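To whoever is on call:

I kicked off a structure prediction for a single chain this morning and the downstream step that reads the tokens threw a length-mismatch warning. I double-checked the sequence; it's 343 residues and nothing unusual in it as far as I can see. Pasting both halves so you can look.
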Amino acid sequence: MSASAPPVPAALSPSTLWSGVLFALAAGLMWGLVFAGPQMLPDYPAALLAFGRYLAFGLMAIGLAALDWQRLRELSASDWWAAARLGLVGNVVYYLFLASAIQQAGGPLPTMIIGTLPVVIALISNRRDATRDGRLPWRALLPALLLTAAGLALVNQDELTRLRAQPDGDLLAYGLGALLAAGAVVCWTWYPLANADWLRAHPDRSPRVWATAQGLATLPLAALGYALTWAYLALTGSDFPMPLGPEPLAFLGLMLAIALFASWLGTLCWNEASQRLPTRLVGQLIVFETLAALAYAFVLRGQWPPVLTATGIGLLVLGVALAVRQPAAKPVTAPPSAADERP
């Protein structure tokens, strides 16, 4: 880097802001589907669900590549390596953690832990990406984050109370599910930051092409993982029927649906949002995924959310509204002082 002053972040126009928000909303609605998959196929190993989803995504990406073959050829070796890293951590490892967490603890608790991502990413990005996106004073950033955190705490408390009231409630499984969900948070804290870095560094590249590239890069990883899962089940004497399990049509249909809507279209919409919005803001909008996943979880339960959960959901929505109405970030031309770093 040169010693010259960092560039001043460009002003965010209302049209760019709201188009980015709508793309993030669309991504969240589709990504919420991935939380329903493990609940719809509870007898399937989490590894098979993870690798099956991304195997379907990779195979689908081969067909989608025909739409953008020339643009895909323009990607360098380093671009493909970046796509492979993003695919491994943000797709395969993340979903392994998530699917395992949901099978251990049910849908809402992992959903709520994953829901801390808006807070975590915003806190990290506000400092990490200050030169590129500008930096909000903590007093402007914290109200939305506190509302989001309060909403998450309310829903989590309600779920823990419900579990303790069940005579067959397994607190150990609940704790293991929480730990696995925390692993998923680590993966998906890194993914949107790294993905946004690439997209913002390549404003001339198509978000659709980048979504397809990640699918293609994920394909060999998913195929290897699926084969290893099959071999593991065979070697351990499992009676699980491979290659498609006890409900092959349901498994194939769900994997294809999640691959199309969550993996490709969801990633495409997220890429569009990431190219338009500061990472700090787009990170907070991951809460749309949490809200969608909660809605799907309660639909599968066949019940309305209880009062405490509904209150938490209301706080999450209010947090989103405040995040979108945040003031313009201050340009950063020098490293922030220690005093300014304090919230």
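Update from on-call: the warning came from a stale cache, not from the record. Cleared it. Sanity check on the structure: Confidence is low (pLDDT under 50) at residues 1-8, 334-343.
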